[in-house]
Amino acid sequence: MDKKNALDENTVLLYQDETHIRAYQSLRATWSQSGIQKQVPTYGHHAYVTVFGTVQVGTGKIVTSIASEGKKEQFLAFLQLLLEEYKGKFIILVIDGAPIHRSQLVQTFLEEHKEELMPFRLPTYSPDLNPIERLWKWLKEQVIANKFHPTKSSIEEAVTSFLTEVSATPAAVLQRLGIH
Description:
- The chain is an alpha/beta fold.
- The protein has helices spanning 72-85, 99-102, 104-112, 132-143, 152-167, 170-176, and strands at 11-22, 48-56, 61-67, 90-95, 117-121.
């Protein structure tokens, strides 16, 4: 594909990132009865899930995948999911410089699919340039802030519920991300 003419109706611009949702309690400002400190129980375990995702800033469409780990193999599976989701489209994928994005396994895959998928790397330490970071903040506010998840499956259920809800409202996604 001619990269000069990449932005047309057959091209999608996606911002990608991954986040880890941990069972560690995330305490945030909250209301409580005067003189009584809010308490969130804990088991002291370190369960977590990794969420891979993209947001299409023109439409608010999100594509996500929950994985047990955030390794290069899971990222590769997410890239394959994107190719299926946007079959017949050319994907410009804005990514950061995370080690899993630079791994040889991923680089080989990107080279093999260069006619369908072009990575665009953000500058180092620039999460403010990636709108999906605001989606992750929203997710964590809703799923883990001041909440207790006793098991990994509990975390997965809460994450899935949130992502299902926001996927159905792309306009709300754009508004929350500050795009529209």
